[in-house]
């Protein structure tokens, strides 16, 4: 009739359906389907992910998609005003005792209703926060990938499967949903897998999450300074040999800067990491190389400024005056026919320090041919030792440049 409220019949049908479905129902007993204990299917809908390197922990904010079936809770919608599903309180029905197996706690579940459909299938989607232990590999930090696992299951519950209703990035069925994930400022999930594992009296689904660190910021604060440090360390070898004080000062500043970076890494990274990051190895070896360079510069300074009484050994002198001197760019240390004062500034300043700037040479056109018959013996001796000091600088420049290049390739800096 016109006075009949269709909604009232629907409510009555829902009440009748609820009463008939849960008459003599025990929510402490696991339901059955096809005569055997029902299979529980687990899916994971991730909202946010973060990794704590210092404590080796993976934290995931997610919604668990938990499904199971009960053959005694099915009905025909036509008999109940086409009602196809009903909503139930969590305490009204049996629920699997789901917990995190590899974490500090079992995970934190929030409140969520249970949906029962007409085919007897239950769906429970509670929010959860999981903090799992993760064995981090920091070798390639800060361009590292970390694979962490969430082992979610139940003690005594053997029939558990991974729910594959979601679609992965490559359009394949997946048990992990990343569609509504809030992007982390540092991590991006690049792969997600799930598999069922059965061990003794427990069964669980192992969710393997592979996260890639977003390291664009680290390029500016780690790798760019590393390049500048290498350039400064190598440029010190091109200063005149008598400027040993300036060279040692540059190396001292570089040692302080590198030590500061290593202290920064010690604060930022776990001390007991699985493997030492390559960038830390790079800075550590660079510290040793710069320290070694300082010792070399002290030796070079001594060779260039000490008042030597003996000549450079003849075989070294021949090398410096031959092709080796040309290869090391030593041939630019020349003296014009007119006056000794027109030598290159580098050698002129060195000779002035030894009090011989007012002496003149006779018809000398190439310092590589200096001998005692053409210039005073003392000047020839000092010139050859200064030339040797310059050669040592140039050779060390080549060796250190090659070492830094190999180190950068090996450490991927």
Structure, explained:
This protein has helices at 6-21, 216-235, 244-268, 278-305, 314-321, 323-327, 345-353, 377-410; strands at 32-33, 36-37, 40-52, 57-69, 85-88, 99-100, 108-109, 114-117, 121-124, 127-133, 145-155, 160-162, 166-167, 173-174, 176-177, 187-199, 202-213. By secondary structure, it is an alpha+beta fold. The termini are far apart. Residues 1-7, 334-347 and 355-375 have low confidence and may be disordered. The chain is rod-shaped, with a radius of gyration of 39 Å. Helix 2 (216-235) packs antiparallel against helix 3 (244-268), helix 3 (244-268) packs antiparallel against helix 4 and helix 4 packs antiparallel against helix 8. It is 35% helix and 24% strand. The strands form four sheets. Strands 3, 4, 5, 7, 8, 9, 10, 12 and 15 form a nine-stranded mixed β-sheet that branches. Strands 6-11-17-16 form a four-stranded antiparallel β-sheet, with no helix packed on it. The protein is built from eight helices and 17 strands.
Rg is 39 Å
Topology as a string of helices (H) and strands (E) = HEEEEEEEEEEEEEEEEEHHHHHHH
SSE-based structural type = alpha+beta
How much strand content do the residues show?
Answer: 15-25%
Count of DSSP H/I helices: 8
